[in-house]
Amino acid sequence: MKKKNLTLLALALAMTSLAFAKDHAVKGDVTKEGSHVAPPVATTANATKADNRSTKGNVNPNAAKEGAKDPYAVPLLKEARPLNFAH
User: Fold this and answer.
1) What span, in angstroms and rounded, lies between the C-alpha atoms of 34 and 14?
2) pTM to 2 decimals?
3) Sign of the Cα pseudo-torsion (38, 39, 42, 44, in order)
4) What is the DSSP secondary structure assignment for residue 82, as one 8-state letter?
5) What backbone phi and psi angles, to 5 degrees, belong to 66?
6) Do residues 31 and 37 lie in contact, with contact meaning Cβ atoms separated by under 8 Å?
7) Residue 81 in 3-state DSSP?
8) Dihedral sign, CA of 9, 48, 70, 38?
């Protein structure tokens, strides 16, 4: 009986994780000329950057384009301003 419960639990967890890992369409657009632009496909957001389609080592299956972004790169600061403590 325990083996059956563990199997059902494992199956339920697997199906739950698959439900959250789905792609979804983002809103499409219409150009000035009235042509319809198909909506892009996006993945559901999560807490990691390493599995994004634009990350090095991954491939976007919809665009057949290899990722180029480094997920561990430190973002550059826009502009450093001096602190003003005078009142």
Assistant:
1) 44
2) 0.39
3) negative
4) -
5) -80, 140
6) yes
7) coil
8) positive
pLDDT in tens, 34-67: 998 888 777 777 778 787 778 888 888 777 888 8
20 by DSSP, 3-state: which? helix
Q: What pLDDT is stored for residue 13 in this prediction? A: 61
Q: Do the beta carbons of residue 18 and residue 31 sit within 8 Å? A: no
Predicted pLDDT of residue 83: 73
Are residues 56 and 67 in contact, defined by beta-carbon separation less than 8 angstroms? yes
Measured CA to CA, the distance from residue 60 to residue 40 in angstroms comes to 12
Contacts for 24-32 with beta carbons within 8 Å, 24 or more apart? Answer: none
Question: Domain spans of the chain?
Answer: 22-69
